[in-house]
Design goal:
Elements lengths: L8 H51 L6 E6 L5 E8 L6 E8 L7 E6 L5
Antiparallel strand pairs: 1-2, 2-3, 3-4
Pfam family, one: N_methyl
InterPro entries: N_methyl_site
Keywords: Membrane, Transmembrane, Transmembrane helix
Length: 116
């Protein structure tokens, strides 16, 4: 008799195992990409908020060096720090940082008018 009647039970089990491993790897890859995309979107939102806060602080009247709490448009708490630049007395360093340890800091320089 000929044994060319198709797959045997062992071959079918091996094929399903290979398919399962491949599907699991593909799922992990897609889930990882979704997590990375969400993290990148959160970082972008944080950067855009910080940039907006720095722009708003630069448009406000010149601030004396110090530290102030600032509320973002979404209600999140941020800290604005203004300090003199070590390179020049005519430069102020504006830095904004969201509340929380290890949060990123975005800085900008602002040229101030020279005193009399």
């Amino acid at each position: 008799m000929s044994r060319d009647r198709g797959f045997g039970l062992l071959e079918a089990i091996v094929a399903l195992a290979i398919l399962g491993v491949t599907a699991t790897a593909l799922y992990d890859m897609v889930a990882g990409a979704a997590i990375r995309r969400a993290a990148a979107a959160a970082r972008l939102q944080t950067l855009l908020t910080a940039k907006g806060l720095l722009t708003q602080a630069g448009l406000d009247a010149a601030r004396a060096p110090g530290r102030w709490p600032v509320a973002a448009p979404d209600g999140a708490a941020w800290t604005l720090t203004v300090s003199p630049s070590p390179e020049s007395r005519r430069l102020l360093v504006y830095a904004v940082q969201p509340a929380g340890a290890g949060a990123p800091v975005l800085t900008a320089l602002r040229l101030v008018e020279a005193g009399p």
